[in-house]
Design brief:
Helix content is 71%, strand content 9%. It has 214 residues and is α+β, with helices and mostly antiparallel strands. Helix 1 crosses helix 6.
Amino acid sequence: MEQVHELESAILERANRLAVEYRERAGRSRDNILQEAHKRLHLREEREVLLAKSKAERTFRRQVQAHELKLQKEMDHLRWNLVMTVKNQLRERTRALVEDEKTYLPLLRSLMISAARDFERQKLVASFNSRDLSRVQPIWDEFARSDAADKQIILNTTPITCAGGVIISSEDGLIRFDNSFEGREERLADRLHQLILERLFPAGTLQDNLSSMR
């Protein structure tokens, strides 16, 4: 009986140790599972935060780009309006210039002579608008006297349409040089536009202004 009792005690003690061991092992497994779950949850949260940040940054960049494009469009519109305003003022000053005969007639003659010099032909025709035609016709012999003795400039008595200046052509009309105000403005359009921009917006000013608005 005593041996049986000892065997039962050994079995119970063994069972108790195994129970404690498995309970501790289960506890460690639970802790590991909870720790792993926490890590996965933390990583998931980090990914979601990063995705949210990335999405927010993309949205912000799109908004900034849209704002910059809008600003650029407004600046381009402003720049265009300013350039056109300067060009219109230039035309107004040109119209005022032609009213001052003392200043304008020497300029008109200079435009005519400089155009005539570019021709290889000797006999040329000068055409003016009706206002300038009435001015130069009475003094034509003196007005048409060229520094180049081989050039003969004939006055066209049919007026042309222009704000001022002169058109020089060959006698047969096949070759012509448009030295009217409109012709000169057209030839100088790119340079004139660039010059106005340089004066209105010194180098970097427009871009600096745009950058300061960001």
